[in-house]
## 1
Amino acid sequence: GLNYADQTPPALADEIAGSSVVKVGDLLRLKKTQVLAGCGFEDAVACVLVRDAEEVCRVAYVPQILVGNPMIERNIDRFAQVVELYETSANSAKQEKSKRDGGVAAVVLLDEIPNLE
């Protein structure tokens, strides 16, 4: 979740900026990485904020249970645009989901954004 920086293992907490910097319209990129967990390293997928054509910081990690999922793997290194932050949604169910899951953003993959011309 975007708000889990304070509930993240200490080795990762300083690396995650979270919802304090993510805004609707921002670009994110899924990146494979490894994180220290327990006695060693494990594969992880980070959501990296992109601004001015540069990767600025990690804002979240994909839940560990989804790492290796074909849908996630297919989208590694792709860009996505944040279209909604559930914590500020008018929909109370989305607000609850964000609270329960530690911050949720809806995104659209860039190659799936329709051409409006």
## 2
Amino acid sequence: CLPLREPIGAHVDFEAVVQQKPGLQTVIAQLMAGLLQRLVLSRSKDEEARGILEDFAEELLNAAFKPMWPAAVSLLRYLLQQLIALLQEKKQAGDITVRELALKLLSRAEVRLW
């Protein structure tokens, strides 16, 4: 139902996508939460995984307002909400590198979107 497999320039029934918006937003929220838990909150200090998250955020910022990627804004919004939640937690995300990464990604987003 999402227009992900359509070739560029193909006709997409956006009314069908809009009707399924609540369910799609739930899936997007779960995707973002799972991505952050796996890449950022894991006990391993895997710099490669954090680099993937940084690259993913950068790509979302690049695609956020392009008409070909309407879901990029939703993905970016949920990613930023999750990062803000990480910063607001007191001891659960006690790893300073997690907080540093969240601040770095949020500051990049603010600069690009402002």
## 3
Amino acid sequence: GEWSQFADVDAELLEKAFSAGITPFMTKKLSFNEGYDSLYIFDFDVMTQANSDSGTSRKLQRTAAGGSKLFGHTKGEDDGYAEVLGGLGEGAAAKAGSGVGAKF
């Protein structure tokens, strides 16, 4: 699959956190999260996003506007990353890493 682009408002928020060196960056204020109130944790050191409620994690890519790359996830590469966040419940490893990569 292809990398998915964040909405402009979300990309701006992530870019500000990245530029300020805030890692991990935790937020619920994402356009796709409205009405869900899930806590998302962005680790810019390993370029990973995790949903603390579902245990799902995916890779992030920071590119120039309009940039694109094919998604290159290798099974096991970041699977289970969300488990280290703790308290995510049974089955987190099975869901972790199963999402599409995202870029900002």
